[in-house]
Amino acid sequence: MKRILVVDDEENIRELYRDELAEEGYRIELAENGPDALSKLDSFGPDLVTLDVMMPGMDGIEVLRRIREKDPSIPVLLLTAFGEFRQDFNTWASDAYIVKSADVSELKQIVKKLLGGK
Question: Which residues, 6+ apart, have CB-to-CB distance to 30 below 8 Å?
Fold first, then answer.
């Protein structure tokens, strides 16, 4: 079973993604901030990370940089409520990028693609 680490400071988003991705057959671990996510990289060993860009303290771009330093092979899917981050060169280090939506079909499709079809 593929493991996904969902990182978002908004509890309702974490729970929505957990429920929707678990329904697809993935094992899900949640992190509410950057330091929490980085500590779970080793203990949980995710096959993919969904990562919110805008978080208090350590933002998603910094978390992405640290994930890449630790293990560049882990696919990272950046998520944000703001589409203009696509122009930020720092987001280009991610494997995919989507704007958050209540419709999680795009999220599921990209996760499946990044994990090689499940």
Answer: 5, 6, 7, 14, 15, 18
Q: What is the pLDDT of residues 45-93, one digit of tens each?
A: 999 999 998 899 999 989 999 999 999 999 999 998 765 555 554 545 5
Give the DSSP H/E element, type plus range, for residue 75.
none
Output the CA–CA distances (angstroms, integers) from residue 94 to 1, 11, 22, 23, in the order listed.
23, 23, 23, 25
The answer to whether the Cα torsion of 29, 109, 114, 88 is positive or negative is negative
pTM: 0.89
Options 3.40.50.2300, 3.40.50.1110, 3.30.450.20, 3.40.50.300; CATH of 3-114: 3.40.50.2300
